[in-house]
Amino acid sequence: MNMGDVVDLNRYRKRRERQQAEQRGAKNRAKTRRTKAEEEPARTEAEHRSRELDGKRPDHGPPDHGPSDDTPA
Question: Choosing a second label site near 36 at 20 to 30 A (CA), which of 20, 44, 47, 73?
Answer without folding.
Answer: 20
